[in-house]
Amino acid sequence: MTRTTCSPAHLHRDRRGITLVLALFTLVVLGAAVGTSFLVVRSDRNSSSQSTYAGEAQLAAESALGELEATWDPAVQNALPVWTSAAPTEWASGTRTLQAGKLFHSVTVRRLNPQLFMATALGWRAGGAGRLSELALVQLYRLAKPTIGVNAAVTVSDPIKFNGNAFAVSGINSLPPQWGAGECAAIDAGTSDDVVGVRSATGTGVGTADLNNVFGYPAKHVPNDASITSATFNNFVDYTFLTLGSQPGVKILPNTTPYNGVAPVIDAGTGACDKTLLLNFGEPFRNPPTAGAITPCMGYFPVVHGTGAQTKFAAGSRGQGTLLIEGDLELVGGFEWVGLIIVRNQIKITGSGNKIYGALLAEGADVDASTGSVGGDVTINYSACAIEKAISGASLARPLGQRSWSQVY
């Protein structure tokens, strides 16, 4: 039997082979660890990116709702018919760009009933050839309408003083001149829609010589009306005088010098009513029969807020909507207004051609006993249609609840 003996040198060479195996094994383990770390980091990065994209899409959708609330246009959204499956009418903003090539949003509005609207906003984060993330929100809005108690053609706290015998104040409900029945809902031709000519918290100021020029039902004038208080001229349920005069889209008139050139204007480029112009208060005229009436501005009934100690309009001014005056209001002739006029202080009307269709409310009407607060051949006619249009133009939508939107997807 032959025995093989391993020398020490041979054993040394065998141990050196193990080192290579261990080195290779270590490299494999380290490679696996590095690869796993890379995958985890990449996964976290993708997750973080997706969360960022989703957050950006949500911000875009929320900004669409905020933009809708800030730019709510009574002439557009308030005029929407109630949405039904048979007549699925809705308003769409189209795509709006927040950040070129990246962030976009759009919004649509449906009217659910006369007071409730549903807005659906979509926001998305674009990238490459598609959308990296998108999110849709739905929000309900309630139409907040001013509740202004109008039960007379002229409502005052102090006596109103008439100067001359050429004026006419009528509480008999009628459409403004040139307006057709299609402007508003059908108006009762009977006495149920008629109101008193002049109401006052104290004496009306209507004298015996004025009775032939004052008309109304069930009376021409009503003095000492206890229902007329400061709240009549300041508190309108969802609004106050100040909140109504400071909401988005209100035309602010701070000057005490006469305002000239008050008239509707169209944008030369688009042909639409240019609502950005300060002295564009809509078009009270209709065409025909008035040649040159600005048709695109006939549906525009803005809120105009005179904030100075006195607001005065030069001759030849015209407009429609709600006129809020902090101080005194002076009309010097040729002023025509369709809608509501609410004056916190005193009112003075002189000259010829002044015409108001809707209603006039003045908290302090006693200007001067000798000259009178209403003079010339002014016409003040109560019109439920004009008031309805003015209030609709002053009504904006408000979201229901503190956080009334719901995420759709």
Can you walk me through this structure?
The chain contains 4 helices and 25 strands. With 409 residues, the chain is α/β, with parallel strands linked by helices. The chain folds into 2 domains: 63-145 and 396-407, no CATH class; 152-393, no CATH class. The strands form 5 sheets. Strands 6, 8, 9, 10, 11, 14, 15, 17, 19, 21 and 23 form an 11-stranded parallel β-sheet that branches. Strands 1, 2, 3, 4, 5, 24 and 25 form a 7-stranded antiparallel β-sheet that branches. Strands 16-18-20 form a 3-stranded parallel β-sheet, with no helix packed on it. A hairpin with a 2-residue loop joins strand 4 and strand 5 (130-144). The longest helix has 63 residues, at 8-70. The model has no long low-confidence stretch (mean pLDDT 86).
**Secondary-structure element order, as H and E?**
HEEEEEEEEEEEHEEHEEEEEEEEEEHEE
> How many beta-strand runs?
25
How much of the sequence is in beta strands? 25-35%
The overall pLDDT average reads 86
- What profile does the largest beta sheet have? 11 strands, parallel
Rg value: 35 Å
C-alpha termini separation: 86 Å
How many domains comprise the coordinates?
Answer: 2
What percent of residues adopt helix (DSSP H or I)? 10-25%
Q: What structural category characterises the helix and strand content?
A: alpha/beta
Helical run tally:
4
Low-confidence stretches: none
Q: Using the alpha-carbon principal axes, give the shape.
A: elongated
Helices and strands in order:
Blueprint: H1 8-70, E1 91-92, E2 96-99, E3 103-111, E4 116-127, E5 130-144, E6 152-156, E7 162-163, E8 168-170, E9 196-200, E10 214-215, E11 221-222, H2 230-234, E12 235-236, E13 239-240, H3 241-244, E14 251-253, E15 303-306, E16 310-313, E17 318-325, E18 328-331, E19 336-343, E20 347-349, E21 355-362, E22 374-375, E23 379-382, H4 384-393, E24 396-399, E25 406-407
Parallel strand pairs: 6-9, 6-21, 7-22, 8-10, 8-23, 9-11, 14-15, 15-17, 16-18, 17-19, 18-20, 19-21, 21-23
Antiparallel strand pairs: 1-3, 2-3, 3-4, 4-5, 5-24, 5-25, 12-13
